[in-house]
Structures are given as structure tokens and as C-alpha cells.
Specification:
With 181 residues, the chain is an alpha+beta fold. It contains 7 helices and 3 strands. The longest helix has 16 residues.
Amino acid sequence: MRQWKYLAGYSDNVTRQVRQLIDENKLAEVLLKKYPTPHEVRTDRSLYDFAMAIKNEFLRNSQPLSKVAYDGKIGLVHQALGLHSFVSRVQGGKLKAKNEIRVASVFKLAPVEFLRMIVVHELAHLKERDHDKAFYRLCEHMEPAYHQLEFDMRLYLTHLDLGGSLYLDPEKPGAAALAMV
């Protein structure tokens, strides 16, 4: 059976069920039923506002964010879906620290739930550096459906890897509503 890169680590039973959905051309249908529309957070500014709203609700006293942006190079260079970076510099006699979050541009045209899950994941790194129990508890505190959303997002990425798309890009000419390819 083919190994799907986004489903590595899941049981044979789970990957078999996903394979069946793919073989029957039903993966897009399942995803669209659960996530019928893409989000409207398309600019770096609106992404910053989106992330800050979540941060202010759950991590008000954590380190400030200086930048939140979409990044077209993340998947290619870092094999990640999002990145949190912390940079410290000495300017004059002061130490300046900057926290930045970058989200893979593939999420510009995705369900809002997936974008939220990625942002929650990267925000959790403001408090917890490692992917340990404390980190995932914090993710679940900010997004109770975190693990289900992560799995569904992996299904979405698998569908995209197979050359499918769920939504037509409204910024491209001739785009209509939904594309179930």
C-alpha cells in the first residue's frame, strides 16, 4: 500500500480507510461536506489580525508578535506548514526581540478551521518550545478540536498532493464557486 507523507504514523486501519475514500473518489466529497467554504483571511494584514485575536484571547501576557505572514517557501524549504521564529538583536544599548509567525501559502485557500489550527500551533510555541504534552495541552486549550482538525488538514493536504483542489481561487480569472476535482 502506498505511504502517504501526511498520514505517516497513523494506523494501517486509518490509512486503509483513507485509501478507500481516494479509490472511490470520495475524499473531496467528505472534506467539502465538513468544510464547504474557504476562509477570507487572504492578506498578511488580515492574517496578523486573525492571529492577534487568538493570541489576545488565550495568550494575552505572552511575548508580542511583530509579524504574521503567508510564506510561499515554507513547504519547499522547511518541510513545515507554519513556522515560529524568535530573533534577538542588540540595537544601540538595548536588546530587541521579535517573534514572527509564517504560515504556508497553501493555507490562503483552505477552511478557516485549518488556518486556525496552524495559527494555534505556532502561537503555542510562544509558551512551549517543544512538541511535548504541555505543548499539545496548550493547543487543545486554544482549540479543543485541535487533533481532529490536524487529521482533517492532513486529509486535505493528501487530496492536494493527488492533484485535487477543493476550492477555486477567487483571485484567478474565471473562478466560480467550488471545484471538486
